[in-house]
Design a protein that fits this description.
The complex is a heterodimer.
Chain A lengths: L3 E3 L4 E4 L4 E7 L6 E7 L6 E7 L2 E5 L2 E6 L4 E6 L8 E8 L9 E2 L3 E6 L1
Parallel strand pairs in A: 2-11
Antiparallel strand pairs in A: 1-3, 3-8, 4-5, 4-9, 6-7, 7-8, 9-10, 9-11
Chain B lengths: L4 E3 L2 E4 L5 E6 L6 E8 L3 E9 L2 E5 L6 E5 L5 E5 L8 E8 L12 E2 L3 E5 L1
Parallel strand pairs in B: 2-11
Antiparallel strand pairs in B: 1-3, 3-8, 4-5, 4-9, 5-6, 7-8, 9-10, 9-11
Chain lengths: 113, 117
Amino acid sequence: QKEVEQDPGPLSVPEGAIVSLNCTYSNSAFQYFMWYRQYSRKGPELLMYTYSSGNKEDGRFTAQVDKSSKYISLFIRDSQPSDSATYLCAMSAPGGGADGLTFGKGTHLIIQP
Amino acid sequence: KAGVTQTPRYLIKTRGQQVTLSCSPISGHRSVSWYQQTPGQGLQFLFEYFSETQRNKGNFPGRFSGRQFSNSRSEMNVSTLELGDSALYLCASSAGLAGGPGTDTQYFGPGTRLTVL
């Protein structure tokens, strides 16, 4: 079992829809949770960063962490064609450890105009 | 502020050769981490350097090595290339706060796409 599981998609939704992206994980030591967006032929860019459980909102993006279920989510409201990209969840334990960031494999999102 | 730069952007090598990739971090950042990204395995952590010292290391064979210079620029080297080394190699820089890559926001470069024939 991989430490972090993420549905690879592709996930295709119409413009304006609410998008829900999810990751599950098995390592209970993870405390820091991130979402990165990666466009084709580009490096990942950080979207959201949360510590421990709870919600965090930034514009159209909301990140949720449920440590009891080992489940994290990213919601995108009023989705735009420019949101079409691969979304990667990443997480780590305090101190980073020997593994740096542990990433999911990414979900390929397509927003249809 | 300029972002993370990586050179070259594309590279084609043959099996058995070696390759050196370069990364220039954001000005003022002291930590550089390297990742390998493939369709099958996703993004995997290679190693992290801070102040010219390797601070963290992932689970990769010794053919993968790196170093960091006093100006925080970093290089990674892969010796005796194998077909399976074909990947996008990403470099990420951060301020290098205590605790390593997991507790410190990382900013990624565009990557070097390595193809091994």
